[in-house]
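Entry 14. Structure prediction run on the chain below.
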Amino acid sequence: MGWYNDSILVLDEAYEIIQNIDSLEKSSINNAALLDKTKPKIKNCLENLRSPLDYVANYLFEIYCKDSYPKSKLKDLWIKYPITYKPGKFYGTLRSSFEGLEEKNNEIVKIMKSSQPFKQNDKWLGTLKDLVNENKHQHLSIHKNNKFIKIDNFSYHGIHMENVTLENCGTALSLGGIDYDLINSFPPGMDKNTVESRYKIYFEDLNAPVIATLHEIHGGVSTLINLINQLEEARS
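Output returned:
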């Protein structure tokens, strides 16, 4: 199906962008100026994450709904994937923009409903709407004090640390009267490859880390379009 193939392409592109942003974050611990380069990448990523929703919306309209509308009304319709915070508004959108869908394929409607912010526990769809529509990606929190250090595994003189995360700390580690920042200096026996250091960027208004949020949205969109595609393949 054309809409599904196009969706996979843009989702793959979005994933590559997320990986690139992640790489910039990791490199930022030695060059904080790299964080500014993430801004246009985040914008492009969000646009790619939104596109599959509109691809599937237009596909569903063409297959199930178009014949229910007079030609004079079609030119005024702007088909977008419904994102609502109340059940009543969701069904109102179905009646106005997807007439006939519920009667012809109620299983699709159930999937669409399950993704809505009033149903979804993790709220990924509402988050995507906020970020794309209100341009919150332009209000990123990029501050040098957002230092993030994760120690995977370290043992020293009876001290053992595993999966320890430090944020916004001054001196990361002090042992035997010697300070180690775990960026340029490491205690004896520590493999620096077991330490992850970066400046983390956040969506300021959401107070949410950018990379984790983008991964969450990517997973939500991927699951949604896969479910709809499976139903449509079974029908055809």
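The mean pLDDT is 88.
Filed with the rest of this week's runs.
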